[in-house]
What does this fold into?
Amino acid sequence: MDGLFTMPSRTSQKYDSIAASVMTLADEMYGLLARTFPVCCYSDEFYFFPQVVVDEIDWRLWDDFSPDRVEDVSRKLARWVLELDALGSGDACPGDLIDISLLIHLAVTLREQLEEVRFHRTQPTFHLAIVTAGLLQAMESGEPSALEMRFWGLDKFLETSGNILVGVPALFRELGVEMVRDTLDWVASLGDQNGVRDSALQAIENFGKRLGGLQVRESFLLPRDLVERIASHHMAVGLSVDEILAEMTEERESLLVELSTLGEELKPGASLMDAYNGIPQVPIPREGKSKLLFQEIERLRGHCLELGLLPRDLAEGCPVKIRAVPQSMTPVRAADSYSALPGHPPAGGTFFVYGEGSLGKASGCIHPVFRMTAAHETYPGHHLLDISRWNLSDVVRRPIERPVFYEGWACFAEELMEQSGFFGQRWDRFILSFRRLRHTIRGIADLDLHMGRMDIEGVAGILTEAGFSAPRAMATARKYSLRPAYQMCYTVGLNRFRSLLGGRNRTETVCMAGRILRQGEIGFDELGRTLR
It folds into this structure.
């Protein structure tokens, strides 16, 4: 790959040498990762990889997690960290220092994920998620032969993936076996591509047989010090697990008091769940639930245009598509989600609706919480954040997504819609606070699970108390085992944005939010200094 980036012009020659070196290292790093892990680097499903766009895609190639290749990548990441660190100690401008910090964090995190966390060695679902992401990428490309070629390369990819699995926890194998079944059904629904789909189905079936013969271990828990590192460093929070838990516990207690007062106003004497479920539901139009969701997204889009958060030229070419979560992803996906199409200029993305999710139950009405979910996933949440990121002039920052920033912004986006008058119903504050409470409970349960303080059944029990049905609570708890510390990103990230923007009036908040969108997903300390 020759040059992912075009060098930007610099008005000051003082920093040209350092800026050029940063761009060169970023080009090398992103290029190697995109060639080695083309699907992980295209999809935003795998948060510790940069989301890199390659001009010429060889659709026959899948990600290479063979031990020799991973060792080679890890060695080069370590070298780049040293080179970047040396640049950061020089006479770099503030913007370049932020880029250097982002690249170092990316390299250190990815290296530790590959060498120590090693989910590519222990999680069959990791490789099956790559299968879905890779096939979706081919389908979205518009190239007639892309899906056919991806089918052709699947056999080698899954054979290598099956051979490198070792020390797989029993729960991870169970989830993998479930995902094999769903992936087979999903791939079978795609239609044949010149007779090669059957070879892909056979490759997936063979991978499932490989899982059946694996020797498994009982515990899925990582060492506690590694969980600490994931929570503090990989998620870019900078706090210990106990500090995060203390913050979220205080948040939970505060929200319970607030919700008790709000619930009493809505439905005196009722429990929180009864008050929440008693909120008047919204009739579904004749065209169906997807139409209702689309209409809400358009209303949110219009509101963000009026506020000035969404530039009109950016809005025109960045549509939101609504799709059901692929059947193959249901064993690992716990809720609605959003996925951006990478590339500059930005081209939009897809709002994936999980099961009943934001589209509600099979009845004539839907709970108004779908409005908050739409704001979280689209405008001014994930979709606006992602298209703003891909619209940056700073090409180093475009591919980088950080969970605590990503989820924190989407939660703040819900609050912003209330502050700016979009959510004005008397029960909207209750719904927003109830969602925050659920995020906080999920974050506490996640960390307690991975620190060994609670088992899967205990997490399911807590989720049931928070209003999940018993089957959904158990299914969700099992999925939390796959991504340690991720669930706390919603609460911790929201609190960071509230600290930055709290106490301001509507005009100031919207103005500052617009400035945040133009920075990329940088660290909160760096963001605070930039805003000041």
